[in-house]
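Long-time lurker. I teach an intro course on protein structure, and each term I like to show students one example going from raw sequence to a predicted 3D structure in token notation. This year I'd like something fresh instead of my usual example. Would anyone be willing to generate the tokens for the chain below so I can use it in lecture? Attribution to the forum is fine with me.
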Amino acid sequence: MSTRFRTVSGALLLGVMLVAATGLRLAGTSQDSLQAGPVPQEVPPPPEPQPLPAWKPAPDRTGRTRVGVASFYADFFAGRVMADGGIMDPGSDNAASRTLPLGTTAKVTNLSTGQSAVVTIEDRGPYAKHRLLDLSPATAEKIGITRGKGIARVKVSPIAVPMPDGSVKAGVAASDPEIVMLR
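-- Reply from a regular --
Happy to contribute to a lecture. Here you go:
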């Protein structure tokens, strides 16, 4: 035999032995793992996306006067359940505030007409930007908010503010002599 033949046949024999050894080592693995590469460690699924918490303003229990824009309830709210569980009566003195606690009584004064009325906060809202209060249609009419304009700048002076412990805090308007005449 020639040297060249021995070298080629030796190389072939070495190649066949490597293929056979690799085949024996891989005999216990599946085809999927061969194609996919190394088996990754188990990774937990990503967490479910959580909804962002709704922004909720803190209750204003200070009893201080605030100035802002008031509007009145739309007609379709009549007869609906309010946040305190009562029914919205367009002829009553109810009002909605995002920050004054439910049950707060307050004097509302239209700054352009000077007319005032006493309201009880029984609902949440208004949900229009930059609004301080939603008033019942009867109260809005009492202080001069017309349907034509729909809004007015008002001063809201709390009379009595319920506290979390069940007590009631006197607001800035509690000592106002005009309150007795408005009720």
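Some talking points for your students: DSSP finds four helices and seven strands in the chain. Helices lie at 3-26, 31-36, 137-142, 178-182.
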